[in-house]
Amino acid sequence: MKLRVLMSFPLLALLACDHAAPTYQGYVEGEFVSVATSQSGRLDRLSVSRGDTVTSGAPLFALEAANETAARQQASDQVKAAESALADLKQGKRPAEVDAARAQVAQAEAQARNLASQLARDEAQFKLQLISQSQMDQSRAAAQSQAALVRQLKSQLAVALLPSRVDQIRAQEAQVASAKAALAQAEWKLAQKSVTAPKAGLVEDTLYREGEWVASGAPVLRLLPPANVKVRFFVPETALAKLRPGEAVSLRADGVPEVPARITFIATQAEFTPPIIYSETTRTKLVFMVEARPALEDGLKLHPGQPVSVVLK
């Protein structure tokens, strides 16, 4: 039993070394990023393997996307159709319809000039009493009727040159906006089928194989960014007053060069000695958990679960 106490106590307390810097035992912990997508589908391509180091934005995996590709094309076509309809409303009648209206006006004007000339001749003959009153009235009525037709056709031509009513244009503009929103949604869903690395880091594990069905929101792989690597160690109350957030420490592990780190968290509440450093003589002793993080360039030198020695400066 005494041997057990002697072997376990140094894992928590200061190592017995004359004039040595305070050293505590701890372990590496990783805060993994579970990479998933909001869409479901068959895993068509897995671009990384477990243990790979990836950069931010590197492709990770892709799900089958035939349905989403077709939906995006449909939404794109609907936007084009809505925009064409809006442009048509703003420019009025088609050129061929406008040309036809102009031709009708020209024909009516020519007929009106003929009838006006005929009316002038009939008025001269009527003064000489060469034609009857009824013939004169018919000639005058025909000229007036044709003049009214010219005015009517000119009004129709003016309307044909005008755009549609404001309410119709606003309604079609709303249709264009709605179609564009549907296109944006379709493009977003398609983009969700291909996932890239949100941060640089180590691919800790892959959870699916190519060809398997992935449910929406299910993690496909776990990523460990360097910034998410930290070391936890425990200090007794007597050493707590000497520690401050931001204080520099050194991390030592087997086969790894000494890694500098800084304290980022000091627990405000005490806890019992963890089971890994348990002994009958120290089980009632309370300790405080402290966390330290290495620099980004040193994060992946350490591995979750790896035991380390933490040397205070």
Descriptive account of the structure:
The chain has helices at residues 2-8, 66-91, 95-127, 133-161, 166-191, 237-240, and strands at residues 23-30, 33-35, 41-46, 53-54, 59-63, 194-196, 201-206, 213-214, 221-224, 229-236, 248-253, 256-266, 271-272, 286-294, 307-312. It has 313 residues and is α+β, with helices and mostly antiparallel strands. The chain has a six-stranded antiparallel barrel with strand order 1-10-14-12-11-15. The two termini are 34 Å apart. It folds into three domains: 2-31 and 225-312, Elongation Factor Tu (Ef-tu), domain 3; 35-64 and 193-223, RNA polymerase II/Efflux pump adaptor protein, barrel-sandwich hybrid domain (OB fold (Dihydrolipoamide Acetyltransferase, E2P), Beta Barrel), CATH 2.40.50; 71-187. The protein is built from six helices and 15 strands. The protein is rod-shaped, with a radius of gyration of 44 Å. Strand 11 and strand 12 (256-266) form a beta hairpin.
Could you tell me how far the N terminus lies from the C terminus, measured between alpha carbons in angstroms?
A: 34 Å
Write down the overall geometry: rod-shaped
In CATH, what is the class of the largest domain? Mainly Beta
The biggest beta sheet, please?
A: 6 strands, antiparallel, barrel
Strand order within the widest sheet?
Answer: 1-10-14-12-11-15
Rg estimate, integer Å: 44 Å
Helix/strand order, N-terminal first: HEEEEEHHHHEEEEEHEEEEE
Q: How does CATH name the architecture of the largest domain? A: Beta Barrel
User: How confident overall, as mean pLDDT?
Assistant: 85
CATH H-tier superfamily of the largest domain: Efflux pump adaptor protein, beta barrel domain
Strand content: 25-35%
- Helix segment count? 6
